[in-house]
């Protein structure tokens, strides 16, 4: 799913990366890892090398991490694979999410590591399964997937939320994304970020995050408000009003502390500094 919020495109090299290229590189990395760590060889073989596609490998991995007594691994694998195969863009989304990590996380040197171990990627791809179920009218299973994501990865994403591709959820611990949240492409979200409601209102009550936004550690964005394209929300900020595009906001409550050049891409640079400027 590509989420568009009527904004100019942001550069992202991941958009041009073909699924076949990433799948081939992931398999090559898996083959090298067999030699590097023989004790993990069986898991790598079963998860990646025995699978015929990125979608199958992803379904297998998610099933082994999310399957439990209520919904066994085999059933979870079939469920995940059904979701990925039903969406013709699923492979492209997974690729853009993988490449986003490779481009933005300095600790990531190969696709294999986030594919096997990173909670943020697993939570995001599992959310996509729950989102598909939600729109199939299968709310019970969708909420089961949401619950398992929360239990296993410490990240709570409502299946009705709308999330684009090329999204990087770093660490994932403590991230909460509410039901009517909309997140555009190429957004970066760090740990303990909350995209929540503001009170007990019903209906459309959660934030709208435009393309290229960086949500720093512990940021709280509350209510049906908009964070403009290319904006930066500083660590621990509490945002209660709209954020203009290409600005940095900080504080409690958050206020504009600097303006960013239109060409700057905070979600890609991951620069969490406040910068300088006169504000508004």
Automatic annotation (TrEMBL):
Domain Serine acetyltransferase N-terminal: 22-126
Keywords associated with the record: Acyltransferase, Amino-acid biosynthesis, Transferase
Gene3D superfamilies assigned: Hexapeptide repeat proteins (2.160.10.10), serine acetyltransferase, domain 1 (1.10.3130.10)
Stored Pfam families: SATase_N
Kinase keyword on record: no
InterPro entries in the cross-refs: LbH_SAT (IPR045304), Ser_AcTrfase_N (IPR010493), Ser_AcTrfase_N_sf (IPR042122), Ser_O-AcTrfase (IPR005881), Serine_acetyltransferase (IPR053376), Trimer_LpxA-like_sf (IPR011004)
SMART domains named among the record's database cross-references: SATase_N
NCBIfam families in the cross-refs: cysE, EPS_EpsC
Protein name: Serine acetyltransferase
Organism placement in taxonomy: Bacteria, Pseudomonadati, Pseudomonadota, Alphaproteobacteria, Hyphomicrobiales
């Amino acid at each position: 799913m590509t989420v568009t919020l009527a904004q100019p495109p942001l550069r992202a090299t991941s958009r041009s990366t073909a699924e076949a290229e990433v799948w081939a590189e992931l398999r090559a990395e898996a083959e090298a890892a067999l030699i590097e760590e023989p004790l993990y060889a069986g898991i790598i073989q079963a998860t990646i090398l025995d699978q015929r596609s990125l979608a199958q490998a992803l379904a297998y991995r998610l099933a082994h991490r999310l399957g439990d007594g209520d919904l066994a691994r085999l059933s979870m694998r079939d469920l995940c694979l059904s979701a990925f195969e039903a969406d013709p863009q699923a492979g492209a989304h997974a690729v853009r999410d993988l490449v986003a990590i490779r481009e933005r996380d300095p600790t990531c040197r190969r696709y294999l590591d986030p594919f096997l171990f990173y909670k943020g990627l697993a939570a995001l791809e599992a959310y996509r399964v729950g989102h598909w179920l939600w729109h199939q009218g299968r709310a019970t299973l969708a909420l089961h997937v949401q619950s398992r994501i929360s239990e296993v990865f410490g990240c709570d994403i409502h299946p009705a939320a709308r999330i684009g591709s090329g999204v990087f959820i770093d660490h994932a611990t403590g991230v909460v994304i509410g039901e009517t949240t909309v997140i555009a492409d190429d957004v970066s979200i760090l740990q303990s970020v909350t995209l929540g409601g503001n009170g007990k209102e019903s209906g459309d009550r959660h934030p709208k995050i435009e393309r290229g936004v960086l949500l720093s550690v512990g940021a709280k964005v509350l209510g049906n408000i908009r964070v403009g394209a290319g904006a930066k929300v500083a660590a621990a900020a509490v945002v209660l009003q709209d954020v203009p595009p290409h600005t940095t906001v900080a504080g409690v409550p958050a206020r504009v502390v600097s303006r960013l050049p239109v060409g700057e891409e905070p979600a890609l640079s991951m620069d969490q500094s406040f910068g300088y400027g006169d504000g508004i």
